[in-house]
Specification:
The chain is α/β, with parallel strands linked by helices. It has 15 helices and 18 strands. Helix 1 packs across helix 12.
Length: 437
């Protein structure tokens, strides 16, 4: 291998794989000018090598066997872009065992099986690049690993699923219901035919797992994160939120509270004047607080062939520089391989938040006082109340915002209230971050 040349092999020639190949081939000279490196795309493996991906690949690069990439002695970096858990994990571990550095965009794999990947990488002395696993083209992993390395991170709030953000934005702007907006998102290609991973918050939880581990030095903790999707959010709730000065966003939240770490994904009401509430459509944003830098916000496209491919190539270049200088892998590899906690993960029942309640209550005298009495008995105080319309003898929406309350107290109170004869439907509640000024 000539000095300055690093050979790369890609496993997976789908959306992100084709975007990565386009950048490596079309920007080869630009990369050389900026870095002095010659990044050579030597092999691409995919089961289908006949379909046109819109990129001209040199002869001899395409193969249907992943082993042609993994066991090629000239390839220095193996890029896994097939997604899923298996065989992606097997391919990555196999490549690591051959002492090849690996790059991936696979957040589901890292969140659930990443400990094995990082442990093997540490044992074999190779690097793992995963910038593309969170927020697509936004370099948030590099921000946490390098840009804010001198900071103790105190909080992260992220809009990191474009599908959910598109749906909630359209519901907000047009007063549309969830089911209709989801169908439109699917028609436009913003949502999968099976959108479960997106709309139930699973994808966001995968990404938060990685961010929290990097931010706080804890093991990858997918199973410890509270998760709630957006399927229960209605146009009515979005309208009430707007009247109160808020927008509803699916937020990934992790922060230091006392001596514990909060980790949760759920719909959240955010004040209209907060920057993160203004992130609309398919865009992503990550708000990070550090003890030295204060508040920072990172914004951009969170998915797509070129934005995600850009992040993959950034990892390739970072690792290529280390190869040329014989630099050791970063220490974060070892921290991500750990399986013991030196910090406490807060139970969701102990989380303190403000809350939005929408009761379906009978329009009768004394109903408000009965509900308020139960809330008060559970240490929940009311900040504001909205009651729309009159329907004597029937049910009407009764909306409340609370002051700060403990989650388990809220659940206890709502469980009692939902059993009341004067409440006709299960109460909907949404957590609130921040206050309208």
């Amino acid at each position: 291998m000539a000095k300055g040349t690093v050979n790369v092999g890609i496993i997976g020639f789908g959306t992100v794989g084709s975007g990565t190949a386009k950048i490596l081939l079309n920007s080869k000279e630009l990369i050389r000018q900026k870095t002095g490196l010659d990044i050579n795309l030597k092999r691409i493996s995919d089961l289908d090598i006949t379909r046109d991906r819109g990129v001209k690949v040199p002869d001899g690069v395409l193969t249907t066997s992943a082993k042609d990439v993994i066991y090629d002695p000239d390839i220095d970096i193996v890029v896994e872009l097939i997604g899923g858990i298996h065989p992606a994990k097997d391919f990555m571990l196999e490549a690591i065992s051959q002492k090849k550095h690996v790059v991936t965009a696979n957040k589901a794999l890292l969140a659930t099986e990443g400990r094995d990947i990082f442990k093997s990488a540490d044992e074999h002395g190779v690097d793992v690049g995963f910038e593309a696993s969170v927020a697509g083209g936004i370099p948030i992993i590099k921000v946490l690993r390098e840009g804010l390395v001198a900071n103790s991170i105190t909080a992260i709030y992220g809009i990191i699923n474009g599908t959910c953000n598109y749906i909630l934005t359209k519901m907000t702007n047009e007063g549309a219901e969830f089911s209709d907006t989801l169908k439109e998102a699917q028609r436009l290609g913003y949502a999968e035919a099976d959108p479960t991973f997106d709309i139930e918050g699973i994808d966001t939880t995968h990404k938060l797992t990685i961010l929290a581990s990097l931010a706080f030095g804890i093991p990858l903790s997918y199973n410890k994160i509270y998760r709630e999707g957006i399927t229960h959010i209605t146009a009515q709730d979005i309208a009430f939120a707007g009247e109160l000065g808020y927008k509803i966003k699916l937020l990934a939240i992790t922060k230091i509270t006392g001596d514990s770490i909060e980790m949760r994904v759920h719909p959240t009401m955010v004040p209209n004047n907060y920057l993160i509430s203004k992130i609309d459509g398919v865009f992503n944003a990550v708000y990070v607080e550090g003890d030295s830098v204060g508040a920072t916000l990172y914004y951009g496209r969170g998915a797509g062939d070129m934005p995600t491919g850009s992040a993959v190539v950034a990892d390739i270049i970072d690792i290529a520089k280390k190869i040329q200088t014989n630099s050791p892998p970063d220490n974060f590899i070892r921290s991500l391989a750990k399986d013991t906690y030196d910090k406490k993960i807060m139970d969701m029942g102990d989380v303190m938040s403000n809350y939005y309640f929408r009761f379906s209550a009978l329009d009768k005298p004394g109903v408000l006082s009965k509900i308020s009495g139960v809330l008060g008995a559970n240490n929940i105080s009311i900040a504001s109340v909205i009651q729309k319309g009159r329907q004597v003898g029937g049910s009407v929406p009764l909306v409340m915002l609370t002051h700060t309350a403990r989650e388990k107290d809220v659940l206890n109170a709502l469980n009692e209230i939902n059993k009341m004869p004067v409440v006709s439907e299960k109460t909907l509640f949404i957590r609130v971050e921040g206050k309208v000024e």
